[in-house]
Design goal:
The complex is a heterodimer of chains A (113) and B (113). Chain A contains no helices and eleven strands. Chain A has 113 residues and is an all-beta fold. Chain B has no helices and eleven strands. In chain B, strands 2, 4, 5, 9, 10 and 11 form a six-stranded mixed sheet that branches. In chain B, strands 1-3-8-7-6 form a five-stranded antiparallel sheet, with no helix packed on it. Chain B has 113 residues and is an all-beta fold. Classes of the chains: A mainly beta (113), B mainly beta (113). Chains A and B meet through strand 5 and strand 10 of A and strand 4, strand 5, strand 9 and strand 10 of B.
Chain lengths: 113, 113
């Protein structure tokens, strides 16, 4: 089984819909991250969480929200999806001693029409 | 502004040959530098991580170098294999709350038989 599991793997939806992307991990890591990847651009941080009661905005948090339901679960929501949120979304984890994400999920490809 | 520039954007090499990918950064204050490999349709996988005091680090046929004075890093792939076909991403972490990361745009490598 994968260490970091993202669901769904692919999603096509319409403008204005609410969407939730889910991430679960079996690494036992405290830190979890949500990134967005667009063609030709580097990954950009949306939100990150250092433990269950900690939520921090990344560089592109507008239009997104997150929930850290448990140490192993971190979900990303788009309250009212818009076409420029079409992208590949990655969840990642790290332990407290290493700078930056160590383990990534395989991504959710989101298309908003 | 923190930036990470990778070159070339893409390259094609023959199986068995060596290649070197470049990463130049302006991130400050520097904390660490990672190289990731991202296969098509998969999440990035960490290859190496180097701190300020480390000049070189190897992971199998992958060898990363770091020159903190010139703010340059390279990733050398020895005796390339078809499975090395992927995007390689350079990521630099700044010493700040949350170890803010700056991602390069990646170098896409295609290994041909």
């Amino acid at each position: 089984d994968a260490d970091v599991t993202q669901t769904p793997r692919n999603r096509i939806t319409k403008t204005g819909k609410r969407i939730m992307l889910e991430c679960s991990q079996t690494k036992g890591h405290d830190r979890m991250y949500w990134y967005r990847q667009d063609p030709g651009l580097g990954l950009r941080l949306i939100y990150y969480s250092f433990d269950v009661k900690d939520i921090n905005k990344g560089e592109i948090s507008d239009g997104y929200s997150v929930s850290r339901q448990a140490q192993a679960k971190f979900s990303l929501s788009l309250e009212s999806a818009i076409p420029n949120q079409t992208a590949l979304y990655f969840c990642a984890t790290s332990d407290s001693w290493t700078g930056g994400p160590q383990h990534f999920g395989d991504g959710t490809r989101l298309s908003i029409l | 502004k923190n930036q990470v520039e990778q070159s070339p954007q893409s390259l094609i090499i023959l199986e068995g040959k060596n290649c070197t990918l470049q990463c130049n950064y302006t991130v400050s204050p520097f904390s660490n530098l990672r190289w990731y490999k991202q296969d098509t349709g998969r999440g990035p996988v960490s290859l190496t991580i180097m701190t300020f005091s480390e000049n070189t680090k190897s992971n199998g046929r992958y060898t990363a170098t770091l020159d903190a004075d010139t703010k340059q890093s390279s990733l050398h792939i020895t005796a390339s294999q078809l499975s090395d076909s992927a995007s390689y991403i350079c990521v630099v972490s700044a010493q700040a709350a949350g170890n803010k990361l700056t991602f390069g745009g990646g170098t896409r490598v295609l290994v041909k038989p």
